[in-house]
Amino acid sequence: AQTVTQSQPEMSVQEAETVTLSCTYDTSESDYYLFWYKQPPSRQMILVIRQEAYKQQNATENRFSVNFQKAAKSFSLKISDSQLGDAAMYFCAYSRSNDYKLSFGAGTTVTVRA
Amino acid sequence: GAGVSQSPSNKVTEKGKDVELRCDPISGHTALYWYRQSLGQGLEFLIYFQGNSAPDKSGLPSDRFSAERTGGSVSTLTIQRTQQEDSAVYLCASRFTGVDASYEQYFGPGTRLTVT
Asked: What is the count of structural domains for chain A?
């Protein structure tokens, strides 16, 4: 079974600053995907960024970037120039590349201070 | 276009009653997933439908839980004889699996179930 671990229950960041969220995972698969999802109080899960395991280059989406360390099974998310709208729960997730069933971490609550 | 919709948004039921939760996926999305989000267990996979294939029920926590998908579109998750530990937000997601299939799952807003 795949497990995803987020060791930071809460993180706080000043507006315009940078925050990094940690995620580690465990798998015996060689082909898989990793994701970061954002869940604001509305409960709507929003895909922030994804990484294919076969790609060495770290994914980037505007102010969001990841540091994917395949050998260490680590997948951290960096939010640059934090904005008030970034405040939410962030989930790290794993899926195999066949059925895409998601395994989620426990989540990290991000608070942005004005 | 329309996203994934779920109904009801909130449901309060008494212990022992049966409940049905509905999910309308995005049109054309043949893959459909149910997840449960609870304080104690976090976010967990429940069941996966892909086209006409037999569903993957490996995440269902007990035989009180069942789901069906009619006509390859709408899905209903049924919980029989509800227990307090069933209280959670039930999320549905759909994914496009045709030509240029996508990895991305689109989530609905969820149904918050409270068992009293």
From this structure: 1
